[in-house]
Each structure stands twice: as structure tokens, then as C-alpha cells.
TrEMBL record:
Per-repeat ranges for TPR: 25-58, 158-191
Highest taxon of source: Bacteria
Matching Pfam families: YfiO
NCBIfam families per the UniProt record, alphabetical: OM_YfiO
Protein name: Outer membrane lipoprotein BamD-like domain-containing protein
UniProt cross-references to InterPro entries, sorted A to Z: BamD, BamD-like, TPR-like_helical_dom_sf, TPR_rpt
Keyword terms, alphabetized: Cell outer membrane, Membrane, Signal, TPR repeat
SMART domains assigned: TPR (SM00028)
Boundaries of every Outer membrane lipoprotein BamD-like domain copy: 29-210
Amino acid sequence: MRRFAFLILLIGFCHRATFTPMGTPELEFKRGKAYFDKKDYKRAIKSFESLIFNFPGSKLVDDAQLYVAKSHLLLKHYDQADLEAQFLIENFPRSEYVEEAYIIRARALYATLPSYKRDQSRTEETIKLLERFIEAYPSSKFLGEAREILYHCRSRVARKALTNGLFYKKRGDLDAAIIYFQLVIDRYPETPSAREARYNLARIMEKRLRIDEARRHYTELADSLDEWGKKAKERLERIEK
């Protein structure tokens, strides 16, 4: 709250200098929405922030806060959009816009995620946010989008773990490779990486003459026409010879 109070004071100073507030929150919101609809998001932000500063008791404050977050998102100010949406969630928990604020946060975080080859802490943060949202709002109109973003985030983390497994397999550290392949299979079974991980795990089992385990993994894959299904069928044919 201390941080926000400072920001509000700073905003207020800027508005007094460069942006004349309207006489009522309704007029200010109307002006901000007009700017927003014209895709003049910078002026829209100024107008909505003017409403928040000059009419803090208005019932339109959470509406304005949502549009501040949406405007920053559309300007690709992703970190600021995340902060503004988070502020709405934390300070207006009963607002009708909380669900949309969660999705704005998810969109903003997802837009700044690093390559799967890099540290995935931010991706894990996004996953936790989306899981909280899905649990709290199972009937939300944003549920489909939340699940889609969650799937892509989980696929990214799974790809990172798969890459680690392939690295250790290439080095000959098969015990470490098994750990990563099994992790992908167990935690991220719905992702594309899970099938590749299962195939590579089966190859290790076959190499170690654990044929029953290899056969089980190959059989899991063989019902598909994708790359790993075709390769699994070939390995099964060799095993059965």
C-alpha cells in the first residue's frame, strides 16, 4: 500500500501539470473509455488514473483499474500490466473484474516467458497463477483461455526437463537421464515432450536388458501415428524377433 500511495501521489502531480481532470468520475471514465476505444492507450491510462486519484471512493475505481491494466497490456508494457492487474486482484477482491485481471496477468507473464532452454522460474510462477485461477473460478468465461495458456506453459517446462534428460543420455549418464524422462512422463503426461521422453526411457530400458519395461513403454506409444509411435512399433518388432 505504501508503494501504491507513492505512485498515486506521483500520478496526481503529473495530472495537475499536464492532464485536467473531469468534474465527475462518470465523465472521467467516459473520456478514458473513448481514448481506449480509439486505441489511444497512453491517454486512456492518464484518464483512468485521473479517476483513481481524484475520485478514490467512486464505484468506477475498479473499472478504471482494469482498463489501466488492459491498456498497458495492449501497449506491450507487460511488467506494468501484470502489476496493475495484480493490484486489482489484491485490493478489489470482490470486484466483478477479478477474473479478467487474472487473465491479464497470465497474458502479460506468458508474453515475457524465456526460451525453454533458460531458467523456467517465471513459467512456474505463471503455472501456479493459472492453477489458482482455475481452482477458484471453475465456471469462468476465461477458463478456456486459462487452460490453453497453462498447457503451453506446462509444455515449456516439460521441454526443458526433456532437454536435460537428452543431455544426460548423450553424456552416458543414464541414471540421471532416467530421472528426467520419468519426471516428464509423470508430471506432464499431456504434453508432446512426454511421448519423446517415454521413447527415450524405453530405449534405455532396452539397452539395460529390462525388456518387459521397454516393451511396456513402446506399447504405450505404438497406438499413435506420430514419430514416436512409428519408432516404438519398429522397436517392438525387433524385440519380438
